[in-house]
Amino acid sequence: MKHHATDAHTLVAAYALGALEDSEREDFAAHLQTCEACRLEAAGFRATAARLAAAVSQPPPAAAKAQVMAVIDGVRQLPPRIPAPSAPPVLGGMLRRRAVPLALAASVAAAALGGVAVWQTQNGQDLEQRARQTQQRLDAVSAVLAAPDARTVHGRAANGALTTVVASKRQNKAVFTAANLPEPAAGKTYQLWLDHDGTMRPAGLIHGDGTVVLTGDPAAAGAVGLTLEPAGGSPQPTTAPLLLMTLAA
User: Fold this and answer.
1) What average pLDDT does this structure show over 90-101?
2) Which residues partner with 105 through β-bridges?
3) What domain range is 127 assigned to?
């Protein structure tokens, strides 16, 4: 489905996550040549998606390769797979509404669950629980990333951590991502805050590199803050902010 020029800005997230059709990707690539705002947002979405995948990735168990090699000779080989008849084309609008969440889910879930499939029998319940938790995170995060009004800002905390906030005023949701966040001291944790006209309100905890959906009312906030607090968090900041990032208008 083709878009008018005025609609092009809403395809930034889908383009960054590789969820556009070939013709749309070519059109949007041409649009990027003349739109600096979209170039910056596309770079932000790519960085956020990469951090999400890294945040939930898990290395395969050390014994996985040995177990697979031990049983591989006894596994019956399947016959060649014959492609099924092509399905009728899906409507462009329906594809677009689902493309971004599906693309993000595929990239992050693959990183989260890859390498542990051989343990499914022994750890079925654990994998199911992990899959549910991953899916819940994906649903919440991808809804914000795919929002037509999503806006991205980047920052650097006083301790050197690189941060990104993607916010949607229409959904009243915001996603915070941190990379290179130093390990907090024993008994301490990192706490996020929303700045409402100078009043700092708790917005959740982040324990290290990763991504969280902020709690509270981000649509009415002017900035996102990060402090180091006692374990469990505080009702008000007890230390100077490591970061205070102004949210995009």
Assistant:
1) 45
2) none
3) 5-75+92-145
CB within 8 A of 227, min separation 6: which ones? 190, 191, 193, 237, 238, 239, 240, 241, 242
* Distance (Å, whole) CA 155 – CA 246: 9
At 172-211, the pLDDT tens digits run: 999 998 888 999 999 999 999 999 999 999 999 998 888 8
DSSP code of residue 216:
S
210-240 burial string, b = 16+ CB within 10 Å, else e?
A: bbbbbebebeebebbbbbbbeeeeeeebeee
Q: How far apart are CA 158 and CA 4, in angstroms?
A: 43
Q: Comparing C-alpha atoms, which of 200, 169, 136, 167 is closest to residue 44?
A: 167
Distance CA 164, CA 72 (A): 44
Q: How far is CA 155 from the centre of its chain?
A: 17
One-letter amino acid of 69: M
Q: Is residue 84 part of a domain?
A: no
pTM of this prediction exceeds 0.85:
no
Q: Is residue 87 part of a domain?
A: no
Residue position matching structure tokens 């917005």:
203
CATH of the domain at 170: 2.60.40
The pLDDT tens digits of the residues spanning 229-238 come to: 999 999 999 9
Dihedral over Cα of 99, 101, 103, 106: its sign: negative
3-state helix, strand, coil split of the chain in percent (to 5) is 40, 20, 35
List CB contacts of 248: < 8 A, sequence separation 6 or more.
Answer: 151, 152, 153, 167
Give a yes or no: residue 61 inside a domain.
Answer: yes
